[in-house]
Structures are given as C-alpha cells and as structure tokens.
Fold:
Amino acid sequence: EPEVTQTPSHQVTQMGQEVILRCVPISNHLYFYWYRQILGQKVEFLVSFYNNEISEKSEIFDDQFSVERPDGSNFTLKIRSTKLEDSAMYFCASRPGGNSNQPQHFGDGTRLSIL
Amino acid sequence: DAKTTQPNSMESNEEEPVHLPCNHSTISGTDYIHWYRQLPSQGPEYVIHGLTSNVNNRMASLAIAEDRKSSTLILHRATLRDAAVYYCILRDGGTYKYIFGTGTRLKVLA
Structure:
C-alpha cells in the first residue's frame, strides 16, 4: 500500500539554524499538509498546500516557516531560524483530490530536536 | 478547538470487543466523522470515516447515532497491537484541516 515517507526520522539542530524537513506524499495525491506534535501534547495543524499554493495556515505557521513542492514529488517544510520551542514531531500528510472528505494519510514523522 | 469529546482512557481485554465513544453535539450537516489512531512513535493512522449510516471496513466499524451527535468506534476483537490513542475528528468547518483533540488512550490487557 502506498505511503507517505518522511526524512530524516530524527533531526538535531542548533538554535538559530535553518532546518528543512522532507516529505514524499503519495504519488497521485493533490493536497498536502504539515502538522506538529510537541511531546505529550495534541497534534496541531500547521499548513495546507494545494496547486502550489498555501490554502490555509495556522497561527503557529509564522514568517519563520515556509513550504515548497520543488519538484512535483517532494514536499518540504523549512524553518528559517529555529527556536527551542520548535522541538516537536512534525508530520506530513496528503490526500487525493475530489471529495474533500477523503482521509488524509500521514507519514511517521520527523523528530526535530533543537539544542 | 476540537469539536469532539472523548474519554481520556479505556481498557480492554485481548480478544474482546471495544467500543470507543465520541460526542460531537455541534456537528453540522455536512461534517464527516473521521477516526484515526496513533500508535507509539508513529504518525496518525486512518481507521474509518462516515457521514450518517454505519460503516464497516477491515479495521473497525463505525456506529453513528441517528441525530449524529455521537458515534462509536468498534474494534471487534482487540489485540495488543490495537493499543494506541484513538482520535475522533470532525473536519473544521469549510476548511480541510483536522483539529485533533486529546483522544482516548486504549490499553489492551493480555
């Protein structure tokens, strides 16, 4: 069964550095998402992306965050200048086009640790 | 905020059925009810979704109340591998994002 893959599984970065988290969504999917989960807390929506544009973003997704689909297969989340509070699991998700109630499929996440 | 309410935790014996309840009293007419689960150290995994009538798939069944203000996820025979946090989610209004609550942590006893 096709799946969403995320790399790396664990990223350790110094505070203030830039980090790029990578995702390969399921190949025929058209809608892409990033969520994050701080340890012991809820899964929180960050951003949704469709047709090469951000369709929605949360308050968490400030100017330090950006997303890109550089080559038609990868979907990336960049954090420009990381802060300690960015430490979390980051999950990528994708879903097909058509009925908007089609379920989202999640990857297993990247654990981001900011030192 | 999440529009669903679930018990924080439940326990079940292995090989027995489990009924996981969810209240969603503010559900709108077009909201589908989605269920996901999250196993330790993994991303949320789709389980099932429905609108009005009961739904079955290979993983579970979803029973939806006639007034749609509550639903129940049914695992017919719990296994140790079903131990996870189960989330009942309504898609947020007219957008496409999921708003996760705190879910129900299911413990399966051998």
Summary: Chain A has a mean pLDDT of 94. The first strand of chain A starts at residue 5 and ends at 7. Residues 47 and 68 of chain A are 11 Å apart (CA to CA).
